[in-house]
């Protein structure tokens, strides 16, 4: 996958998963304030635990999960 800023990659994946019915907003566990910050603050990144949970909840592939974690600055989480 190409290297994208966290919010761009997140919304690309999130929008696809919402559209195809894989998830609902409430299933993501994202706090509404954090979601608002994602929408309005270009450099905002969710905390590591939330990003890891999103990878599972959104049923991301290994490649998608790695790209999302790396874009958030947490790439080492998937190294093991």
Give a description of the structure.
There is one protein chain. This protein is mostly helical and about 80 residues long. It contains five helices and no strands. It has helices spanning about 5-20, 25-30, 30-40, 50-55, 60-70. The chain is globular. The model has no long low-confidence stretch (mean pLDDT about 90).
Topology:
Blueprint: H1 6-19, H2 25-28, H3 32-40, H4 48-57, H5 62-72
Helix pairs in contact: 1-5, 4-5
What's a quick, concise take on this entry?
This protein has 80 residues and is mainly α. The chain has helices at 6-19, 25-28, 32-40, 48-57, 62-72. The longest helix is centred in the first third of the chain and has 14 residues, at 6-19.
Short descriptors:
single chain; about 80 residues; mainly alpha
Question: What class, by secondary structure content?
Answer: mainly alpha
Q: How much strand content do the residues show?
A: under 5%
Helix content: 55-70%
Number of strands: 0
Compute the average pLDDT: 91
User: Which value, in Å, is the CA radius of gyration?
Assistant: 12 Å
| Total number of helices | 5
Q: Mind describing the biggest β-sheet?
A: none
Could you give the order of the helices and strands? HHHHH
